[in-house]
Amino acid sequence: MGKFFFDHNGSGETRLYICTPCYNEARGDTIEAEGSTFLKTKLEKKRNDEETEEWWVQCDKCETWQHQICALFNGRRNDGEAEYTCPSCYMQEIESGERNPLPQSAVLGAKDLPRTFLSDHIEQRLFKRLKQERQERSRHLGKTFDEVPSAEGLVVRVVSSVDKKLEVKQQFLEIFQEENYPKEFPYKSKAILLFQKIEGVEVCLFGMYVQEFSSECSFPNQRRVYISYLDSVKYFRPEIKTVTGEALRTFVYHEILIGYLEYCKKRGFTSCYIWACPPLKGEDYILYCHPEIQKTPKSDKLREWYLTMLRKAAKENIAVDLTNLYDHFFVTMGESKAKVTAARLPYFDGDYWPGAAEDMITQLRHEEDCRKQLKKGKTKKTIMKRALKAVGQTDLSGNASKDALLMQKLGETICPMKEDFIMVHLQYACTHCCILMVSGTRWVCSQCKNFQLCDKCHKAEQRVDEGDRHPTNSREKHNLYPEINDVAQDTKDNDDILESEFFDTRQAFLSLCQGNHYQYDTLRRAKHSSMMVLYHLHNPTAPAFVTTCLVCHHDIESGQGWRCEICPDFDVCNACYQKGGIDHPHMLTNHPSMVDHDAQNKEARAKRVLQLRKMLDLLVHASQCRSPQCQYPNCRKVKGLFRHGIQCKIRASGGCVLCKKMWYLLQIHSRACKESDCGVPRCRDLKEHLRRLQQQSDSRRRAAVMEMMRQRAAEVAGNTN
């Protein structure tokens, strides 16, 4: 379960929780969080295994109390005065004729989520393959098609599809500044979920996040796809095996992945990359809190799971070749003539090697500084020269030498675990230059299985002496015949942008689930959590967390409060509003009820976004304004908030409402801000904080991989002895 630390002396109801990695990351006697500094001696160490008390709801008919989770009660849709009927009373009323059953359309489910070309493609393929599998199983068992069970109630949906930009790490960029290496790579991030109706309730069983780098993206990321995260929970029904012996659950998940690869191939993508890295113990990738009975697969098991899927894709010619990052980019094999350089490596968000490379560059620079200072630098210099000579370089200070040393160090690290860095060719690669071919003619050897050349390399092949042509190690020369590369000219995505505050990143989705205790550790919790996930997807303007009154700090039930339509997160409950004395310059409007929430549409959401943008613009203006008599609306108020933030002793972590509001706006601003010298207070600190959080996550994954490799080496050594 892991450990965490929390502030046990803070004032107010808000408690500060800090995980062990962040605690250890903070050097010295203090730690900074949410704009405040805390003494480490004031933090108490706790285990993260405490049971959270569940909320209850009472039936207005029989007055029986039930857990909200068991009753599938959605407190966000409760108007306070609405009557609640428990399932038992509801069934009795239907049987007695007092009530008509609600139609299925009364509650929006997974099928009601927007469909996309991608989700349709995956669903159609999945249903077709499930039908074929059921037919095979019925023949194998000697039964009719209807006599054998099959997976029912499956729905695939893309819940997020947004444009993003990946910034290249600075030290790596400096090595390739002479080669005009891109400073950033634009890509589209997508989140795909699978739902299944289990016992009448839709449950989210599977999710994955992917990164798509289009044909318009710069080399080396052009036309590449990265499957960044994949997660599932073990509630799939029915729990049976296919004719081949694999679980039907595995069959379905494989078909979703193969369907996605097939769709990418049709769109013109050339390759897909998968880092087979299981999550650390106690951590979740997408779905929060897995069942205890569900074991986390080890690296070799997870890798074989992916490879089994890819072999199926290869049989359908969706994948034309399977290799790994090391064999394709770090070594020249056979007749390959491609340059070994880090500039050719695909650069993905959250992947292993970009973070590892940055650590290695720092280490190389440190070694270089030490070499210059040490009197016995001659010995170190000799060692460095030998390493450079081994990779064909002589200049210690040149960027080409740094590139060569970096590739050598990366290669040494990746080689022992190279099989975990899977590379899937969706299009054919030229044997000489290793570039994946998308246009022109592909020249294929009539005798060798995996030899083909692009137009450029084929022309170069014709210019060399006949003795040096393919195959180079034989006197007998092979004929090459032409084939046309039939690949889409561009990777245009016909699907609309799908923005979702809660699904645009896996961290945002995990935060939503963790903050609301949307857990998947039991089936009953998974049902309720999935119901709430669908609620948030269908009601994007609804608050992520229970709204709290800024006066009394109590939770506000749906439809029982008042909100400012101009200032974000200014909410008061009915009781405090009726008492009066609310000092606020703008008019407050009554919270929308359940019916009003259902009526909200894109226009309402756009209005909310526009209001937030105005607030952020005001934030930037106030940080730069030096006029004491500024007429810009609310400029002086925001300046007052800045002054309050400097002087306040309670702070956001202690429950200060003004500090909470300012901290909320600063966080939104810092995520969007691209200015290196932004004048908004604490913007740079927040950006650094967010950057460090991502670094910590990546570092933990890399550290886990290195620890796994150490254990493997120890096991091998033990078996040898």
UniProtKB/TrEMBL annotation:
It holds the Pfam family PHD. It comes from the Eukaryota. This is histone acetyltransferase. Keywords: Activator, Acyltransferase, Chromatin regulator, Metal-binding, Nucleus, Repeat, Transcription, Transcription regulation, Transferase, Zinc, Zinc-finger. InterPro entries: CBP_P300_HAT, Histone_AcTrfase_Rtt109/CBP, TAZ_dom_sf, Zinc_finger_PHD-type_CS, Znf_FYVE_PHD, Znf_PHD, Znf_PHD-finger, Znf_RING/FYVE/PHD. SUPFAM superfamilies: FYVE/PHD zinc finger, RING/U-box, TAZ domain. Residues 425-488, 544-596 form the ZZ-type domain. It is an enzyme of class 2 (transferase). Residues 603-686 form the TAZ-type domain. GO terms for molecular function: chromatin DNA binding; histone acetyltransferase activity; transcription coactivator activity; zinc ion binding.
